[in-house]
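Shipment paperwork, digital attachment
Item: protein structure file
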Amino acid sequence: MIKLALVAMVAFIAPTTMNAQLNEILGKAKEAISGSSSTAGTVTNVIGDLLGSSKITEKNLSGTWVYTQPCVAFESENVLSSIGGSVASSKVEEKLKKALEKAGIKSGKMTITFNTDKTFAMKVSKKSLSGTYEIDGSNVILNFTSPARSIKTNAKISLGTLQLAMNADKMLEIVNTIATKASAYSSQMATVSSVLSQYNGMYLGMKFNKK
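Attachment content:
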């Protein structure tokens, strides 16, 4: 009986301890959302960024963009209530960054160029990929030539920064497409994907600065 009681106690305490810090982070985010206008601006700093809702144009999209960092994007601030404080975007981004680096995708080492003729060229270190793209409202669809695959992304352009966000499974697909290293990144990506698959309205993505 004593052994069973100890096992039950450990099972209860362990997840509580691990989630305490994450709950605190999201607690602050919720306070920012429901608080005054002076604190509302801190929301995106705590939990990540929102998806883009503005129409993307070829004029704004065209040019060369340099990868800077991964990101977690949300459909709306109301998504916070549905995730119940059990995950924080900062932790997901940290795991995502490590996975991308294992795949050879590092800050300043990846570029994507959108041309006005609806073609794009992507370069990751010494690996080059190309294809065509389509714009559908706030979405940009990347049609890779080789390997042949189409990946739909939500795009947001603000102050010289391009954010491309997508479902977790599509993020894994695009990483598999552009990866330059055969490593253990897939297992890390799978872990991140499994976490996000439990929550609606959360997306993985990458940020780029205009060159």
